[in-house]
């Protein structure tokens, strides 16, 4: 087409051009300046579900949903009259309409050419449904990631703030803050391994005991229990606080002390609950602390509310005992009227 | 000044509780679900409320409607930004997470 010195090579060359168009992966449709289809390649047949024989001579607007379907003749008219380009030579994403009436996003580029005094337009099209879906998914994931990061930062803000409020000195603050953040990170690791769908209580406990370093000091007994991400995060932080307290003042501060952690499941369906008991023995005589620290506040004030259950911390003389009851499944949120609730 | 806290993440609730207490507020809550938030919004005698937008799959918008009907001012706290708040409620102050204590202090001061 207008190539310098490219004189028509006759039937052989035309067959080669035809083969290129016929084997192209992208749909190629040629129209004249009135929108009548002149050529419709096999990829276009696959894309739109029409046979080329039925499309030759038809108006190309049959391949478009509204508003372009009704307006396309006018677009061509305007272009013929003014030469104003909206799409020719530019390319854009538009919607196509298949024979069955369904629509889909496609990437369209249009080239213009002339032959024997007539004007033609070649449209090259590619279905971008899959790409759009991937882009949408990626957008959702980035938003969700941003939300989770912000929430996690707020959690860190909370842990840091409370640690600094309660710390005896800077060294104590550094130590407490570090181990609390590590406890959060451990739970994140477990949740990430399970795509943030939940965590097994045993994995949470295994991580906790590994961070302590000596499994012989713990006695564990209980069934496998799946925890929601939220329950896993709060519970593991609470257990971390119990362990820190035991290490500093309780059963784990002496060579022979032990911690037994036992748990069971109670009830069924939405009423199913986890009952977990932490009991220290063989440690020094226990007396209640003079003031409430982060750990006891988290357990006695926060945990029960968040887990929709109970949490009790008891400084028994022969060893700290803690009981935590957590709802394992939340009933689907009741329909709350969106507005005008009286 | 009595302030109701609606927040399903207990660590964030504790943070907000501390920040509000520092500002001399008396806090009540936290309500941790959409239903308990509506319940608290109807029942609690408060001067202000701080509402986390997303509550375990639900939202605090119904609670906001109740507070608005009662004439109790409120602000949202969210990790999703303005777009996460229902359009007709966006005239309420929107605080992002993590919480800027100065922004919270200004919001409380404006409501006093």
Automatic annotation (TrEMBL), chain A:
The keyword Ribonucleoprotein does not apply. Keywords: ATP-binding, Flavoprotein, FMN, Kinase, Nucleotide-binding, Phosphoprotein, Repeat, Transferase, Virulence. PROSITE patterns: PAC, PAS. InterPro entries: HATPase_C_sf (IPR036890), PAS (IPR000014), PAS-assoc_C (IPR000700), PAS-like_dom_sf (IPR035965), PAS_fold (IPR013767), Sig_transdc_His_kinase_HWE (IPR011102). CDD domains: PAS. It comes from the Bacteria. It catalyses: ATP + protein L-histidine = ADP + protein N-phospho-L-histidine. This is histidine kinase. The lineage of its organism: Bacteria, Pseudomonadati, Pseudomonadota, Alphaproteobacteria, Caulobacterales. Coiled coil: none annotated. It holds the Pfam family PAS. Transmembrane segments: none annotated. The keyword Transit peptide does not apply. Residues 81-140 form the PAC domain. Its EC number is 2.7.13.3. Residues 13-66 form the PAS domain. It is an enzyme of class 2 (transferase). It comes from Caulobacter hibisci.
TrEMBL record, chain B:
The modification 4-aspartylphosphate is found at residue 52. Pfam families: Response_reg (PF00072). InterPro entries: Bact_response_regulator, CheY-like_superfamily, Sig_transdc_resp-reg_receiver. SUPFAM superfamilies: CheY-like. Residues 2-112 form the Response regulatory domain. Transmembrane segments: none annotated. Keywords: Phosphoprotein. Coiled coil: none annotated. It comes from the Bacteria. PANTHER family: PROTEIN-GLUTAMATE METHYLESTERASE_PROTEIN-GLUTAMINE GLUTAMINASE 1 (PTHR44591:SF24), STRESS RESPONSE REGULATOR PROTEIN 1 (PTHR44591). This is Response regulator. It comes from Caulobacter hibisci. The lineage of its organism: Bacteria, Pseudomonadati, Pseudomonadota, Alphaproteobacteria, Caulobacterales.
């Amino acid at each position: 087409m207008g190539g310098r010195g490219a004189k028509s090579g006759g039937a052989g060359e035309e067959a080669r051009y035809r083969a290129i168009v016929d084997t192209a992966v992208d749909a190629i449709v040629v129209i004249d300046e009135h929108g009548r289809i002149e050529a419709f390649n096999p990829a276009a047949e696959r894309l739109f579900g029409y046979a080329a024989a039925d499309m030759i001579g038809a108006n190309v607007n049959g391949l478009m949903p509204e508003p372009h379907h009704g307006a396309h003749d006018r677009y061509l008219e305007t272009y013929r009259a003014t030469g104003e380009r909206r799409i020719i030579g530019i390319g854009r994403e538009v919607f196509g309409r298949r024979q069955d009436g369904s629509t889909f996003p496609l990437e369209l580029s249009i080239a213009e050419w002339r032959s024997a005094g007539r004007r033609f337009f070649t449209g090259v099209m590619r279905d971008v449904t899959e790409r759009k879906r991937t882009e949408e998914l990626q957008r959702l994931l980035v938003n969700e990631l941003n939300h989770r990061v912000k929430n996690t930062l707020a959690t860190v803000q909370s842990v840091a703030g409370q640690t600094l409020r309660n710390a005896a000195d800077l060294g104590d603050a550094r130590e407490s803050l570090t181990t609390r953040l590590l406890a959060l990170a451990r739970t994140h690791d477990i949740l990430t391994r399970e795509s943030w769908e939940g965590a097994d209580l045993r994995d949470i406990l295994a991580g906790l005991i590994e961070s302590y370093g000596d499994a012989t000091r713990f006695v564990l007994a209980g069934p496998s229990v799946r925890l929601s991400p939220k329950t896993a995060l709060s519970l593991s932080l609470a257990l971390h606080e119990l362990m820190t307290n035991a290490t500093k003042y309780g059963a784990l501060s002496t060579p022979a002390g032990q911690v037994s952690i036992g748990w069971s499941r109670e009830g069924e369906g939405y009423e199913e609950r986890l009952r977990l008991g932490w009991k220290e023995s063989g440690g020094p005589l226990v007396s209640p602390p003079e003031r409430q620290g982060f750990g006891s506040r988290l357990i006695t004030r926060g945990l029960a509310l968040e887990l929709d259950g109970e949490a009790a911390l008891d400084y028994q003389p022969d060893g700290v005992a803690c009981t935590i009851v957590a709802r394992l499944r939340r009933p689907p949120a009741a329909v709350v009227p969106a507005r005008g609730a009286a | 000044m009595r302030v109701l806290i609606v927040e399903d993440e207990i660590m964030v609730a504790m943070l907000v509780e501390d920040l509000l207490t520092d500002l001399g507020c008396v806090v009540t809550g936290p309500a941790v679900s959409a239903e308990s938030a509506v319940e608290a919004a109807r029942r609690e005698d408060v001067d202000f409320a701080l509402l986390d937008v997303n509550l375990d799959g639900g939202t605090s918008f119904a609670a906001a409607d109740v507070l608005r009907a009662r004439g109790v001012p409120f602000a949202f706290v969210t990790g999703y930004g303005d777009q996460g708040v229902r359009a007709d409620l966006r005239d309420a102050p929107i605080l992002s997470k993590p919480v800027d204590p100065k922004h919270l202090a200004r919001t409380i001061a404006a409501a006093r």
